[in-house]
Amino acid sequence: MVQVCNRAFTNFYHNHLGIQIHHAHKGHTLEPECIESSSGPARTHACLEGSKPAIVGPRVEHKDEFTCKGGVDARRLVNLARKGLYSTAKEMGGNVLLEERWDCEIRHPRYQHRDQFKVTIHYSATVARSSWPDAQRPVEIEAAKGIKGLMTVIDRHPEF
Questions:
Q1: In the chain, where do the E strands start and end?
Q2: Which residues are registered as beta bridge partners of 97?
Q3: What single-letter DSSP state applies at residue 32?
Q4: Looking at per-residue confidence, does 28 or 111 come out higher?
Q5: Is 82 helix (H, G, I), strand (E, B) or coil?
Q6: How many whole angstroms separate alpha carbon 17 and alpha carbon 13?
Q7: Which is more confident, 112 or 97?
Q8: Which of 36, 66, 81, 158 is most buried (most C-beta within 10 Å)?
Q9: Of the ranges 47-56, 105-114, 141-150, the best mean pLDDT one
């Protein structure tokens, strides 16, 4: 009976006041507050591993923050972050990215609709100049974890 009352109050607070209350009960698992995924350690695409770059530049970082509604296609968002980093590399005179690494964090923001998510992507790589073409895709993209649903990007804040 107590659990039923707790659940009813929790639902009321969440639905009408936007407040989330979590009760830890035996046998119940809580929804994760955050979904994290990563490419793992920095690595270079296989198509560039055998090539010797003519010039190796500095390591650069790019951070993107997205607000998404309906779902999160993490692979697409990681790809967008890489494209932002690649355009920075081109401005620096590079044409390939080496030793790439990315992290993706999906959070459910408090006090907002249930189907909205905050996504932060950190992408870093070493800028280089090579006679070989860039791979034009993120490393270990299969590791990106998203949320099922039709994603709509409501807002984007890139930081360099």
A1: 34-38, 55-69, 96-107, 116-129, 152-159
A2: 127
A3: P
A4: 111
A5: helix
A6: 5
A7: 97
A8: 81
A9: 141-150
Q: How many CA atoms lie within 13 A of 156 on its CB side?
A: 11
Q: Are 73 and 151 in contact (CB under 8 A)?
A: yes
Evaluate if residue 12 carries a pLDDT over 60. Answer: no
Q: 3-state class of 139 per DSSP?
A: coil
CA 56 vs CA 88, 102, 106, 149: distances in Å? 15, 20, 33, 40
15-47: per-residue pLDDT in tens?
544 444 444 444 444 444 799 999 999 999 988
CA 93 to chain centre: 27
pTM of the model as a whole: 0.75
pLDDT for 50: 75
Separation of alpha carbons 44 and 138, rounded Å: 10
- Please tell me the total number of residues recorded for the chain in this structure: 160
- 56 in Cβ contact with 128 (< 8 Å): yes
Buried b (16+ CB within 10 A) or exposed e, 17-53: eeeeeeeeeeeeeeeeeebebebeeeebbeebeeeeb
Q: Quote the tokens at residue 146.
A: 């998203």
Are 35 and 105 in contact by the 8 Å Cβ rule? The answer is yes
Mean pLDDT on 80-108:
95
